[in-house]
Design a protein that fits this description.
The chain has 34 helices and 13 strands. With 790 residues, it is α+β, with helices and mostly antiparallel strands. This is AP-1 complex subunit gamma.
C-alpha cells in the first residue's frame, strides 16, 4: 500500500486483514507514512492524512502525534481543512492537553467569522472539549451569538452555553437574559437549546429558578401548541409532534413547579391534557407520558391527576417492551408509599410480572409486590410470593425470604398463619434465610403457647422428612427439646395426632448429630434437645446419658464444652437437673437479653451451669446497646457483677441468666430513682462509689471513689471503664493506687463522658487490686446512674 493511498482504500485494506497482526502491520506502515508527511511543508494533503489518522484513532490505536496537526488545520483559512482540524480537536484533544490552549485564539476568531458554518465548527468544538479557562475567555462571545439573528447559530450557541455553565457555574448569570428571550423563537432547534440551557441554569442557581418561574405560562403555551398542533413532517416522530422538545419542556416544568403552588397550579391543566391526548402505543408517546408522570409526582398536583399518572404507569405494565415495564415499576416503587391505594389497583398486573423471563423486571416486580403487602391482602399476596419463591432464581431467594418474613411479621392475621408461613419458607429456601431467622422464629413459637403442640408435631414431621435445611433443623431440635413431652403425648387438636415413641425422637436427634450435613451450630441444638429430653421422658435416660458422654471428647470445642457440662449435670448436679432443664418461659423480644441474631458460635446457648451471669434488668433497652457493651473490655475471665447498691435498693431483684440470650427470666423490671451517690462495688472490704455531675447538655463527669475498710492497705488499684460505642469516654489519672486501711483515706478517679446522641447510658467497670498478696479482679455492670444522667 503506497503512502498516498486514499482513505477509502486504507479502510478497505484494514478490513481485509485476516489476522490481528496483519491489521497492526497495515496501520503501522500507514502511521509511519503519515508522520513523514506531517514533517513536510504544506503539501495539500494534511487534511487527507489527518482524516486517515482519525480513523486509526477510532480503531483504538495511538494517534496522539496528530494533535499539533489539528492546531495547524484549525488555523487554516480553507474550510475543508478547518473542518477536519476541528473534528480532530474534538477527538484527539481534551482539556488536560496543553495543545488545547493553542486553539483558543483560533476559536475566538472563528466565532466572529462571516460564514455561519465556520462559526458552527467553533461552537461545536468549544461545547465538546472546552476547558474552564477557555470557557471564561470565550463566554462573552457565546452570549453575543445567543442574540444573533441566525437561528442556526443561536441553536449551536445555546448548546455551547450549556457546556460553559456546567464547567463554570458562576457564568450562568451572564446567559440568563439571553436565554429568557430565546423562548419566543419559533424554530424548534433554538427552543430545544433554550429549554436545555434554562434547565441547567435553574438546577444550579436558586435565584435563577425564581426568575424563570415567571416564564411558566409561556412554557405552558409552547407545550399546548405542540400537543394540539396538526401533522408536521419536519417535527413528527411516530405521530407525536417533536417529542424531544416536549420531554425537555416537561422536565423544566417539573423543576419550576417543585415546592411551588403557583407554578404547580399553572401546570395542572396542561399535564391532564398531555396525559389524555398522547398516544402510548409508540415509544415516542410513551416517553412523553413517562415524563408527564414524573412531573405530576414531583410537583404539588391534584389528587385526581396523581391517580391518572398511576393509571398511565399501569398501562405501561401491559406493554410488550420490557424496558417500558421496568421503568413503570421503578416509578411505582417510588410512589407506592404516598399513593398506596392507587397502586394497589394494578396489583394483579404487577404480580404477573414476577413470571417475566427478564431478571431485572422480575426483581423490580418482587420489590413492588413486597411493598404492596398490607393487612387486607396479606393472605392472597403471600400465596403468590410463596409460589414465586419455589421457582425464583437463586440470586433473588435471599431478598424474597427476607421480604416475606418482614411482611409476615407486620401483617400476620394469626400466629398459626405466621408460623406456617415461616416454616413453608424454611422448607422451600431454608439455606437462603438470614441468620436471625432462627432466634426470631423461636421467640414467635414461645409466645404462641396454645400452638406449642401443633408446632412441635409439624416440626418433627419436617425433621423426619429432611435434615439438610440447617435453619429448619435447628428450630425443630429446639422445639423437640422444649416441648418433647407434648410430642410424646400424641394429643393435638390442631393437627392429625401422630403417636411418637421415645426411641423415635431420640433416633431423629441422633441422626442430626451424626449427619455430615449438620453444622456445628445444628449439632449444638440437637445435643441440647437431647439433654432436655432427659427430664421429659421416663424410659431412655440411660441412652441420653450415653449419647451425651460420647461428645465429651468431640473435636468441636463448643460441642465438647456442652457435653462436659451436661455430663456434670448427670453426675455432680443431678439433683439440680430438673430445675436447670425446665421449660423456658415466654421470651420478651424487647428484653435486654434478647438479640436478633445468633451467638458468636452460631448457636443459641440455652444453658451453661458452670458460667452464671448476673445482670440488672432494665425495661425496654435496645438490644444492640447491650451487645455493644459485652465485648468492649474483652478478655475478662469473670462475668460482670451487678452493683450491690443498685441491685438491692435502686432496681429491686436481680435477674440471673445462665448462658445465652434466650434465658432472660425477669426482663422488664421497673426502674426506681436512685440517690445522687451510689455504691457500685463492695467486696473484700473494698467499696467503690459512683457520683455524677452533668456539666453540659451532652457532657457529664463521673467520679469513682474507692475506700478500704480492712486492717491492711490495698495496693495496685486500677480501674477500667467501657461504654457504648456512640459515647465518648476519657479517664483522668487516678489520685493514687494505694488505699489506706481502716477507711483512713480514699482513691478517686474522674471519668469524662460525652453523649452527643443522648443514648441510654450503660457502663462496665473493671476493678483490679492486690489484697494480702492476693490479686483480685472483678467486673461490674452499671445499668442505672444517679441523677443527673441521661
Amino acid at each position: 500500500m503506497s503512502p498516498s493511498v486514499r482513505l477509502q482504500e486504507m479502510i478497505r485494506v484494514i478490513r481485509g486483514a485476516r489476522t490481528q497482526g496483519e491489521e497492526r502491520g497495515v496501520i503501522q506502515r500507514e502511521c509511519a507514512a503519515i508522520r513523514a508527511q506531517f514533517r513536510q511543508a504544506d503539501n495539500g494533503t494534511r487534511s487527507h492524512n489527518l482524516a486517515k489518522l482519525l480513523y486509526v484513532h477510532m480503531l483504538g490505536y495511538p494517534a496522539h502525534f496528530g494533535q499539533m496537526e489539528c492546531v495547524r488545520l484549525i488555523a487554516s483559512p480553507r474550510y475543508n481543512e478547518k473542518r477536519v482540524g476541528y473534528l480532530g480537536a474534538m477527538m484527539l484533544l481534551d482539556e488536560k492537553q496543553d495543545a488545547s490552549l493553542l486553539i483558543t485564539n483560533s476559536i475566538k476568531n472563528d466565532l466572529s467569522h462571516s460564514s455561519q458554518y465556520v462559526q458552527s465548527l467553533a461552537l461545536c468544538t468549544l461545547g465538546c472539549m472546552g476547558s474552564a479557562e477557555m470557557c471564561r475567555d470565550l463566554a462573552p462571545e457565546i452570549d453575543r451569538l445567543l442574540r444573533a439573528s441566525n437561528s442556526y447559530i443561536k441553536k449551536k450557541a445555546a448548546l455551547c452555553a450549556v457546556h460553559i455553565v456546567r464547567k463554570v457555574p458562576e457564568l450562568g448569570e451572564l446567559f440568563t437574559p439571553a436565554s429568557r428571550s430565546l423562548l419566543s423563537e419559533k424554530n424548534h432547534g433554538v427552543l430545544h437549546g433554550a429549554v436545555v440551557l434554562i434547565t441547567e441554569l435553574c438546577e444550579r442557581n436558586p435565584e435563577t429558578l425564581e426568575q424563570f418561574r415567571k416564564a411558566v405560562p409561556e412554557l405552558v403555551q409552547i407545550m399546548k401548541g405542540l400537543v394540539m398542533s396538526g401533522y408536521s413532517p419536519e417535527h413528527n416522530v411516530a405521530g407525536i409532534s417533536d417529542p424531544f422538545l416536549q420531554v425537555r419542556i416537561l422536565r423544566l416544568l417539573r423543576i419550576l413547579g417543585r415546592n411551588n403552588e403557583t407554578a404547580s397550579d399553572a401546570v395542572n391543566d396542561l399535564l391532564a391534557q398531555v396525559a389524555t391526548n398522547t398516544d402510548s402505543s409508540k415509544t415516542a408517546g410513551s416517553a412523553v407520558l413517562y415524563e408527564t408522570v414524573l412531573t405530576v409526582m414531583d410537583i404539588k398536583s391534584e389528587s385526581g391527576l396523581r391517580v391518572l399518572a398511576v393509571n398511565i404507569l399501569g398501562r405501561f405494565l401491559l406493554n410488550n417492551d420490557r424496558n417500558i415495564r421496568y421503568i413503570s415499576m421503578t416509578s411505582l416503587q417510588k410512589i407506592v408509599q404516598t399513593d398506596h391505594n392507587a397502586v394497589q389497583r394494578h396489583r394483579g398486573t404487577i404480580v404477573d410480572c414476577l413470571k417475566d423471563q427478564d431478571a431485572s423486571v422480575k426483581r423490580r416486580a418482587l420489590e413492588l409486590s413486597l411493598a404492596l403487602v398490607s393487612a387486607v391482602n396479606i393472605r392472597s399476596l403471600m400465596k403468590e410470593l410463596l409460589l414465586f419463591l419455589s421457582s425464583c432464581p437463586p440470586e433473588l431467594r435471599a431478598h424474597t425470604t427476607s421480604g416475606i418474613f418482614n411482611a409476615a411479621e407486620r401483617y400476620a392475621p394469626s400466629q398459626r398463619w405466621h408460623i406456617d408461613t415461616i416454616l413453608h419458607v424454611l422448607t422451600t429456601a431454608g439455606g437462603d434465610v438470614r441468620d436471625e431467622t432462627v432466634p426470631n422464629l423461636i421467640q414467635l413459637i414461645t409466645t404462641a403457647t396454645e400452638l406449642h403442640c401443633y408446632t412441635v408435631h409439624k416440626l418433627y414431621r419436617a425433621l423426619i422428612a429432611d435434615i439438610s435445611v440447617q435453619s429448619l433443623v435447628q428450630v425443630a431440635c429446639w422445639c423437640i427439646g422444649e416441648y418433647g413431652d407434648l410430642l410424646l403425648r400424641g394429643e393435638c387438636e390442631e393437627t392429625e395426632p401422630v403417636q411418637v415413641a421415645e426411641d423415635d425422637v431420640l433416633d431423629a436427634l441422633e441422626t442430626v448429630l451424626q449427619s455430615h450435613m449438620s453444622s456445628p451450630a445444628t449439632r449444638g441444638f440437637a445435643l441440647t434437645a437431647t439433654m432436655k429430653l432427659s427430664t421429659r421422658i421416663t424410659h431412655n435416660v440411660d441412652r441420653i446419658r450415653s449419647i451425651v458422654s460420647i461428645y465429651g471428647s468431640c473435636i468441636d470445642v463448643e460441642l465438647q464444652q456442652r457435653a462436659v457440662e451436661y455430663n456434670a449435670l448427670f453426675k455432680k448436679y443431678d439433683h439440680m437437673r430438673a430445675a436447670v432443664l425446665e421449660r423456658m418461659p415466654v421470651i420478651d423480644k424487647s428484653s435486654p437479653g434478647h438479640t436478633n441474631g445468633e451467638s458468636a458460635g452460631g448457636s443459641i446457648k440455652e444453658m451453661e451451669p458452670t458460667k452464671r451471669t448476673q445482670e440488672v434488668a432494665l425495661p425496654q433497652e435496645p438490644a444492640n446497646q447491650v451487645c455493644d457493651l459485652l465485648d468492649l473490655l474483652g478478655g475478662s475471665g469473670e462475668p460482670p457483677q451487678p452493683s450491690p447498691a443498685l441491685s438491692t435498693t435502686a432496681l429491686g431483684p436481680v435477674s440471673s441468666t445462665a448462658g445465652g440470650d434466650l434465658l432472660d427470666l425477669l426482663g422488664g423490671l421497673d426502674v426506681t430513682p436512685v440517690p445522687p451517690s451510689v455504691i457500685v462495688y463492695e467486696k473484700n472490704g473494698v467499696t467503690l462509689k459512683l457520683q455524677t455531675d452533668r456539666q453540659t447538655d451532652t457532657g457529664m463527669t463521673i467520679t469513682l471513689t474507692a475506700t478500704n475498710s480492712t486492717d491492711r492497705e490495698i495496693t495496685s488499684l486500677t480501674l477500667q471503664a467501657a461504654v457504648p460505642k456512640s459515647v465518648q469516654l476519657q479517664m483522668k489519672a487516678p489520685s493514687g493506687d494505694v488505699i489506706p486501711a481502716h477507711g483512713l483515706g480514699q482513691v478517686t478517679q474522674t471519668v469524662l463522658l460525652n453523649n452527643p446522641n443522648k443514648v441510654s447510658l450503660k457502663m462496665r467497670v473493671r476493678v483490679c487490686y492486690t489484697s494480702q498478696d492476693f490479686v483480685c479482679q472483678d467486673t461490674v455492670q452499671i445499668d442505672s446512674f444517679p441523677s443527673p444522667a441521661w
